[in-house]
Amino acid sequence: RKEVEQDPGPFNVPEGATVAFNCTYSNSASQSFFWYRQDCRKEPKLLMSVYSSGNEDGRFTAQLNRASQYISLLIRDSKLSDSATYLCVVLGGGGADGLTFGKGTHLIIQP
Amino acid sequence: DAGVIQSPRHEVTEMGQEVTLRCKPISGHNSLFWYRQTMMRGLELLIYFNNNVPIDDSGMPEDRFSAKMPNASFSTLKIQPSEPRDSAVYFCASKDRGGNEKLFFGSGTQLSVL
User: Fold this and answer.
1) What is the DSSP string of A1-52?
2) Average pLDDT over every residue of B88-107
3) Which residues of A touch B111 (CB under 8 A)?
4) Average pLDDT over chain A, rounded to whole?
5) Which of A32, A91, A101 sits opposite B43 (nearest CB)?
6) How far is CA A16 from the centre of its chain?
7) Which residue, A88, A91, B4, B24, shows the most beta carbons closer than 10 Å to its own?
8) A34 touching B, CB under 8 A?
9) Are residues B103 and A103, on separate chains, in Cβ contact within 8 Å?
10) Tens of pLDDT along A42-53?
11) CA–CA gap between residue B50 and residue B31 (Å, rounded)
């Protein structure tokens, strides 16, 4: 099993809709979790951290389920500008200084 | 702050040539990472440094790859000799180990080996 797995997509979603995608991780000792956003031909940038209690930032909500070892990202009222690749990042248990990146989920918001 | 600065932005070279990629991390950050990204394999860690010391280079694919960090403000990734399969986007990233796990990436170097 890969350390961090994501559905590559693409997810084609109409503007204004709600979309959610998950990321599973294999190491139960993982400590912290993040979502990064990567636009086409650009570098990844931190979107939000994921806390045990879940957290919300505007239209974005991140959840952590330690029992099932997955994190999720929910985007409400999606905008055209949300089109990007969303990378799941897990800290702890391997990778660079503990950071392991998923391959990303490609999201396309359609007008 | 100018962020993580990488050069060149694009590099096109012929197989067998030496390629040197450069990175200037954010001032004050003491961890530096080199990643390679391709469609097939996603973002792969090549090597990372803490306080200018290489900590984990297990991701360096072959002896053709080498990385140095002579001081806190500069790092290089060298490929010699380059091969077509090395074609990818190479990212440098830095972070502060003082409890903040936020990783800042440079704009990347698009490498094409013909």
Assistant:
1) --SEEE----EEEETT--EEEEEEES-TT--EEEEEEE-TTS-EEEEEEE-T
2) 87
3) none
4) 90
5) A101
6) 19
7) A88
8) yes
9) no
10) 999 999 999 888
11) 5
